């Protein structure tokens, strides 16, 4: 039903007058009805809120049925690996106990007893050593237990065995250490696993994390528990609290940006609801990196006619942008509308604006490469002519990040005119190629694990609004103007920048409207359809590794829809 409706809506959009289809797209009531129908058919927007009684209108938890199917698949993977254990590795388990609670500790110990033969010893870090000693004396666990005081400001550990750090009250998967033993001989980096939530002892609300994502960690503390530390590596913890693990990882990254962290996309630890805090608290990393200088930014805006959208774009930049050191390079690609030409003739008199002529067939990649050669800025900004500024400080936020030596491309959060998300990062593999994360979510919606509102790393971001160092742009020879003249050139560009050793980043604080593809039109001719197919095939061939596994995503999540729902039979 949904697929039929989607096809009908797509065809209807082609035949209706543009002003009518635009009004329909911007109708919140119509979109609400459509979204409700989509949700009813399982293609729901899935924010995975932490507190079950705060379910918003625009999403709800994945159904128990869906997650139970996923649990069966995960257990098969864990069981198969557990059957082929090379070494029964002895783990040191470090239980952090910020609040002394016999009941919660008992739950953790009970899950450890089931796999005691994999545990060398247990360390319990607590402020109540005497109480804990008295209680533990009555219980036999099958492994040695040491109590460590948490009164000091720093806690430092270094073991001859791999160690597993968790919190009191958390329950480990019954085959967690059996599975980890299978990999322990090759365990060389810090490693973390996925988690879920125990509600009345029932596994729910899976937290399917991306691979190591430093800026997401800085924004949202997404790794909070379940960290496996290789033998010989020093664990240096600050004063004991619920944020002990996330603070340690933050400090470790900030002191050593070359830190290597691996990820196991399996749920090996189950967290009680009492230990959780919403991930979208304080999702703002821009303040961590105050710019020491303000380089010139060259904003490149290709255009073909489209006077009204171009005028809105340029005026919104000039009137709303608080960052002062920028130039705008408008590239006129065969405009023949007299009003547009008159506007271009007038606007180029502005001291910060230059107009270049590109009298060749439309080739988005070639147009931008041409303009970059004329750019005076240290930073290149690729900006569509249908962009409209919302956040006055958008350039401050984005320049702050793009200056960092470890960051390559920086993209903004883009919204449709009706305040629904158009772009909040690019995920490889959507539809077999690439797509936009959290598309059609409401502007203020946190998204899955707050990933719609937090600054974080993605494999790619859209060039509708993208900043990159000019030196990086030139290092990868710009956009591919031979194979990707219109579509996916930004994705290909971002992935080539990754190969320089950079990380790409979504700057969620920078919000702009995107009146998507208004002037370019649709893929509605045989020639355009063929070109688009060729570009998709190029992407699939060139970047098959990223499409099969996007490190900024999770293999347990769907590639059929852009809503972070659980992958079923795909």
From TrEMBL:
This is Glycosyltransferase. It is an enzyme of class 2 (transferase). Pfam families: Glycos_transf_2 (PF00535). Transmembrane segments: none annotated. Keywords: Glycosyltransferase, Transferase. SUPFAM superfamilies: Nucleotide-diphospho-sugar transferases. GO terms for molecular function: glycosyltransferase activity. It comes from Agaribacter flavus. Its EC number is 2.4.-.-. Residues 298-420 form the Glycosyltransferase 2-like domain.
